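Module 6 notes. Inverse folding takes a fixed backbone as the condition and produces residue identities as the prediction. Think of it as a translation problem where the source language is geometry and the target language is the twenty amino acids. Below is one complete input and output pair. Work through it position by position during the lab.
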């Protein structure tokens, strides 16, 4: 029997540590729990929110609906010659899955070490770090369609992955719940070391022929040095996306700011480093009330303790305004704003 609780604090279910309440809350431990839940028509009418690790959301008020906390577990793998097929429950912690693979020598996920959040959330925004994105290892996922009560398999093409984007955030938003994800990995490492900080740190450690374990450890080291640990300082990783603009828009900015950090983004487009833009506006490490930006990475907004979601949100608006005033570039929030 499913247990539906009422007025549940979500403080421990969002990495920002914002203290809001959910009117209804249910823990989903098996895919079939979803079938059971949505057999009751009342849950079709009400606003719903699916939470995995709660690591990419900011609540600005109590949630007057049903929160589904995804807790479907299990990791399995099958090896065929050099290929490794891994399947994981959506409620598994992303980094536990990465460790499972790295420990067994299954290559492909090492650059994605220590990203907070759950496996089920990983396709939604096509998580990525240090030159690798989820789509590089993704094979397919199984999702529950709320309207019909049926399960559907999504191939990589079906997911329409883009930079921190997928079909689940766009045309199919709110319609499906991911219950498990399959990955294609390999027993042969094909290391992606093009990210400068990785090479640097490998050199510092005197490692010239790195294994996937080395890369995983180095990535974890870089993340820990740059990003605040949500278990001590509430945050949701990068708060904004790195903006992508046209080369025509970029040229005049580059003339005024020759040092601007930028990366080619194909098709006459340029990606800017939002952290750099924010730092140039003087925000890095600033504390404003209970919130602020992280001292080592201005793209990360933090809860220094007791911040409300509204406070963090208002602060993010100040940043958007000042980046726009200085550079004429509009930052978009990467974190989901709930409320
Ligand atoms: N920078 C600054 N000041 C800052 C922050 C960054 O000048 O305060 C400069 C850095 O020196 C560097 C550039 O901006 O030249 C890029 O910084 P970084 O390498 O830290 O990466 P990022 O573009 O800010 C993205 C992802 C991160 C991911 C890293 C590493 C987005 C929105 N963020 O950050 O992902 O870990 O690359 O690959 O794409 C997340 O999405 O939550 C996240 C943490």
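Target side of the pair, the amino acids:
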């Amino acid at each position: 029997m499913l247990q539906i609780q009422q007025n549940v604090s979500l403080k421990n279910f969002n990495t920002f540590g914002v203290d809001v309440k959910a009117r209804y809350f249910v823990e989903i431990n098996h895919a079939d729990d979803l079938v059971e839940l949505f057999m009751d028509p009342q849950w079709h009418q009400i606003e719903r929110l699916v939470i995995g690790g709660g690591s990419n959301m900011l609540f600005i008020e109590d949630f007057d609906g049903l929160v589904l906390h995804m807790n479907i577990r299990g990791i399995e793998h099958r090896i065929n010659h050099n290929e490794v097929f891994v399947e994981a429950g959506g409620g598994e912690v992303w980094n536990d899955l990465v460790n499972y693979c790295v420990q067994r020598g299954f290559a492909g996920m090492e650059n994605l070490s220590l990203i907070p959040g759950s496996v089920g959330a990983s396709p939604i925004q096509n998580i990525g770090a240090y030159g690798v994105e989820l789509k590089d290892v993704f094979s397919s996922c199984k999702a529950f369609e709320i309207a019909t009560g049926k399960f559907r398999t999504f191939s990589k093409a079906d997911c329409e992955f883009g930079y921190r984007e997928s079909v689940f955030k766009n045309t199919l938003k709110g319609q499906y719940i991911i219950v498990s994800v399959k990955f294609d990995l390999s027993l042969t490492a094909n290391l992606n070391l093009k990210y400068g900080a990785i090479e640097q740190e490998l050199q510092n450690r005197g490692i010239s022929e790195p294994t996937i374990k080395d890369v995983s450890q180095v990535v974890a080291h870089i993340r820990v040095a740059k990003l605040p640990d949500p278990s001590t300082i509430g945050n949701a990783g990068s708060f904004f996306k790195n903006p992508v603009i046209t080369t025509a828009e970029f040229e005049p900015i580059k003339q005024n700011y020759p040092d601007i950090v930028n990366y080619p983004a194909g098709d006459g487009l340029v990606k800017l480093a939002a952290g750099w833009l924010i730092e140039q506006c003087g925000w890095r490490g600033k504390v404003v009330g209970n919130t602020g930006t992280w001292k080592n990475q201005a793209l990360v907004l933090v809860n220094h303790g007791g911040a409300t979601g509204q406070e963090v949100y208002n602060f993010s608006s100040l940043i958007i305004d000042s980046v726009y005033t200085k550079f004429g570039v509009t930052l978009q929030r990467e974190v989901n704003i709930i409320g």
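Reference fact for the lab report: The domain at 234-338 is CATH 3.90.78.10 (Uridine Diphospho-n-acetylenolpyruvylglucosamine Reductase; domain 1).
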